[in-house]
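Our consortium's second objective concerns turning raw sequence data into structural hypotheses that experimental partners can test. To show how far this objective has progressed, the report includes one record in full. It was chosen at random from the queue rather than selected for favorable results. The single chain below, 329 residues long, was entered without modification.
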Amino acid sequence: MSGPLLNWLREVRERYAHPSRLAQKGVLGMNRRNISYISRYNDRSLFPLVDDKLQTKQIVLDAGITAPDLIGVISEQHEVKDLAGLIASLPGFCIKPAHGSGGKGIMVITRRDDDGYHKTNGQIANIGDLERHVSNILAGLFSLGGRADVAIIESLIEFDDCFTGYTYEGVPDTRVIVFKGFPVMAMMRLSTSASNGKANLHQGAVGVGLNIGDGSALKAVQFDRPVLLHPDTGTNLLTLKVPHWEQLLNLAASCYEMSGLGYLGTDIVLDRQKGPVLLELNARPGLSIQVANGEGLVPRLRQIEALGNKHKMTPQQRIDYAREHFSRK
């Protein structure tokens, strides 16, 4: 067998470990996640509340949770012409599909000048480009199953300068897995040129595992491989520490009562003026957070399950428990 082929086989073994080895390390797989946690702890009747970003926006606003302001909604093709009026006074804004997934269809405009509307990747669009994008959203180009959709226009997050150098073009967000109201694992997703300015790990964003105790970096990965420096800025990723960590965990934990979901992912960004702001909820959060943390979810989930429902905890007590038991030195 040739040397290159041997090297390739070793790489495959290292990258795709045998399922039994992963189970021994407490790694949560997709089937187990779906059966033991999503199906068991998430009532299917609640899924539309998080699958539809417009419904999510409404329950978030009703609960008084900090989120981007809703500028407007376009639900019919004949309303596309109203877009220019909705955004006329806005220096920046975000257009997203209500039923999109994986960041598809989200267009972020950071500023506007005589040249046009500036997107996060440096490209410049005109109003016709924006109207076509909204029209494509309505036609279901970005929605699950190609279903007809609606376009949501939100205010722009004012990027917190504390993350300058840790991300490329896009706004970084923090994903927190919340189980029965306990924040059990967290990571920050940092955009890169490979991810086209989006915080999507599958497209090439960097995932940084975070210590649930204080929000400091534990490990960084890109395409499931360890990295130390941001591929575009050269910043040491292990020096990252998320400010307002207590406030961020409180926001994540409060989504349990608000949504009624027992197992969910919360996506939170830091706004320069507002602090932690809730972007989205996810009833089927992905599993790559375990890669970013270098640790499996199962032991933490089992520990929470072992508590039972005998002693009802307040959100603050749940946060204190998580920080005490799931912190890493």
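The partners drew two points from this record. Residues 69-155 form a domain with the Dna Ligase; domain 1 fold (CATH 3.30.1490). The chain has a mean pLDDT of 90. Both points have been shared with the crystallography group to help prioritize constructs.
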